[in-house]
Amino acid sequence: MFAMHPIGFVRCGYRDAAEIPRGLGASHQAEGVLEIESALAAGLTDIEGFSHLFVIWAFDRSKSVELLGTPPTDDRPHGVFATRSPYRPNPIGLTVVELLRRDGNRLHVRGIDMLDATPILDVKPYLSGVAPEKLRRGWLEDAENRARKGGTRG
Amino acid sequence: MFAMHPIGFVRCGYRDAAEIPRGLGASHQAEGVLEIESALAAGLTDIEGFSHLFVIWAFDRSKSVELLGTPPTDDRPHGVFATRSPYRPNPIGLTVVELLRRDGNRLHVRGIDMLDATPILDVKPYLSGVAPEKLRRGWLEDAENRARKGGTRG
What we know:
The structure is a homodimer. By secondary structure, chain A is mostly beta strands.
């Protein structure tokens, strides 16, 4: 068992999960602040040189686990490890954000998809991606193709 | 406080951190298995459609925290949140692996950079990256440029 403590909290305008864009083509442009505990501010040294960060956070308002669930992006169920569902065995969320600027222990970022007051567990530099031509996106690609043909979901 | 439990364990050939390639230009091509608890196997449904996965895991053999440290890729210190150091306030590791095949509750992957028996906390589909022309890599870019000029580090 591992005991994780918040290193800080998200400050943003989302008060309810229904406000956060979800589903196919959802674009996360919301800005917000990652407020890191001031005792840990030394850990942010040189972070301002990175354009993008991984934010690892806790789904602190999800209490249940669903091994199979139907995501907002599809009309059929998939395994929780093949989705970003909040109903995970360990309630860990992962978001890539763009770092706009650092103001002491406050990181101003774009790309927030968490609720206000979400506990942050870790922040890491985002270093590189997988080349698009090497990436397969499984059921999500299938769902996108169906949506494109049907034209009813978006 | 959040209590996290392993959803499974890494099976691979690395027994000692010194065996894992680190530093500038380190290439992680090692293959291994993510062995997920059989009680959670339903959560893997449809995961085989994805070419790449995020693996969130625990640095279970790192006990200390270093807010400022000098990574193997540089000769000067940086904040822990601007590096992938194991000495983090929450000992969380993050690795992108290529999914080679699924065999029941065993995911055969390439790109292992964890030790054998590392506890896995979560697995998520890797969906997209940041366009290379939009990515800045801070001190790591500087260190690479110095290494290129000096020709002494690699």
